[in-house]
Amino acid sequence: FLSSKKSISLRSPQAVASRHAVPGLRMQTGTATGIDTEALTRAATEARGLAMDSIAAAKSGHLGLPLGCAEIGAVLYGNFMQQNPKEPQWINRDRFILSGGHGSMFLYSWLHIAGYELPMEEVKNFRQHHSATPGHPEFPNSEHNTPGIEATTGPLGQGVVNAAGAAAAQKMEQAMFNTGEHTIFDSVTVSLCGDGCLQEGVSAEGAQFAAHEGLDNLIIVYDSNDVTLDKMAEYTQSEDTAARYEAYGWEVVTIDGHDLAAIKSTLDGFRAAKNGKPKLLIAKTIIGKGIDEVAGTNAAHGEAGVAYVEDAKKKLGLKEPWEVSADTYKFFESTQAKQTEVYNKWTETFEAWKKANSDKAALLDKFVKKEVPSASDMFKAIPEFEQKDIATRESGASVINDISDLVPQFLSGSADLHGSNKNYIKTGGNYGKGFDKSYTGKNFYFGIREHGMGAIMNGIAFHGLFRPSGATFLVFVDYMRATLRVAALAELPVTYILTHDSIGVGEDGPTHQPVETVSSLRTIPNLDVIRPADSEETVGAYVHSQQRQDGPTALILTRQGVAQVNEVPAQTRREGVLKGAYVLKKESGDLKMIIMASGSEVQHAMAAAAELGDGIRVVSVPSMDIFDKQPQAYKDEILPASCKKRVAMEAGIGSMWYKYTGLDGKVVSVERFGFSAPGDIVMKELGMTADNLIKECKSYM
Questions:
Q1: What pLDDT, on the 0 to 100 scale, is given for residue 1?
Q2: What DSSP assignment string belongs to 152-164?
Q3: How far apart are CA 167 and CA 188, in angstroms?
Q4: Residue 450 is a catalytic residue
Q5: 258 with 38: CB under 8 angstroms?
Q6: Does the pLDDT value for residue 588 go beyond 90?
Q7: Three-state secondary structure call for residue 518
Q8: pTM flag (> 0.90)
Q9: Do 625 and 523 form a contact (C-beta atoms < 8 A)?
């Protein structure tokens, strides 16, 4: 993609033409009619000015993308996207996801100009405390509620895959709710990215999924400016991106990213093409366009151009700080009027659809309002389990089907491990294109793509109608950890089903036996990690995951069978999970010792308490995260300060248990990697047995 000619200035017209010349590829030029080129050009210039002023004022930020993609923004917000700034949550809106989240001033400038409720004062407060314009875009949550932000982005590569998830959700809503008489959903998803996003491997996983499942409503705009942060892009890449995406099964078009007509005509063509192919628009741009001293170089990526802003604005004809002309505001008011006409016409169709389809309308209303049954109603609807020992993943295989019936917007999926994770919805059908799939299917086959799976799930959750879940082996959650962090930060109600939870995996050996993983997940803020002890606690774990509206839940399930705590009522065990920890066995007589455990080690705690006699309390701790959020009075009731003798047991790293045992307490844990052998032998050799727990308790007492 790059010229090797060193004699040409990187900012000269010859260099731009050379860098945009792709061997064997003719660039598409603009032929669109009906666009006001003068108004859009003026708006693009003023959007550049807003980015310059805000980044200069903050002394922080990234100039390159907002300046290089200004014409793209002008077309998207001024002449292409189906949106209504006065109704930013319109369910049939196009979604725009800025995958290159570092270029956030692109988004804030255009949201302001386009008429969203983002006043100029907030544009000026870029990157300041409590502003609506944080350094990277943040999906509306308890910290920020900026209208028009469709995804939390910044970790490169994830945004384009979030877009695939949103597009998948759009396909599902179209298949579920459109009828032959009424089309109430016909939106697309657009994402803007750069070389950094496409170099991250997750983008390839998402691109493969999107093409394979025929997501032709997905449009990725690739800001191809031949620049990365450290160096010019040729230093680290030499691939033919267009050929790669065509090989995946995408439709690919390359244009001059500053040609308004070419941008508009290509996007219009993409929207119209229902050809089963997602779309990649390669827009050849000049990074930092408008600041001649850095434009077209890697120096333009960040804030190096700030020193030249004053002169650059003069050259652009911008005389005032944060200047947006009356003509630009007037143009976008006329755009809003057209958008309102489209919205009003859609509203008429929607009302007619509701009258003709009362059942579908009631279901959609439930989805939009994010309604789920209460925990007590869900418990009543889910039958109690038989009193036999089974793995919690096996319990989950039953519970997930009950959950699907109770929460129709609940979806499932797996990274090629449905048979092992046991998370298949039997009556749900399979999602996608071809074979036995349809776009109403509730079971997603993500392939061996954990990172992509996590980002697609987040995209589905960002879309807002559905509650996604996805499964893999616990030890492989590290492949998707970056997406868990975003889900927790963005407060998305996503569920992770993570099976094969400990050294009990056995024969597969230490590569597949997680020891540090549960503890590491517990360190992620706002991620509720639940490791249930038996079938009834598994019910409680699934129910809790569906009660959450403000963050994700990780369900940690065993491969091997575990004993059912049949001496304790099922309802007590289910409700106990909702508190995070509860008394499973109360001491008889004076309290002498508390034994705590989670998951498969709870059975050993119960056996040890029976052997040790009076005065022993057993506390099941399925979720530290939930327990830590309980009122202090409840925590003191479960773990009274008067009892200093405390023992905890878990088949993993034990450091986090000391907050409950105290430094003088005893933690029986696994502080090393496992080994290949039958699971019961590995457990015994590494001390995860009732006999060893009894021995440790006796020595401690």
A1: 25
A2: ---STTHHHHHHH
A3: 7
A4: yes
A5: no
A6: yes
A7: helix
A8: yes
A9: no
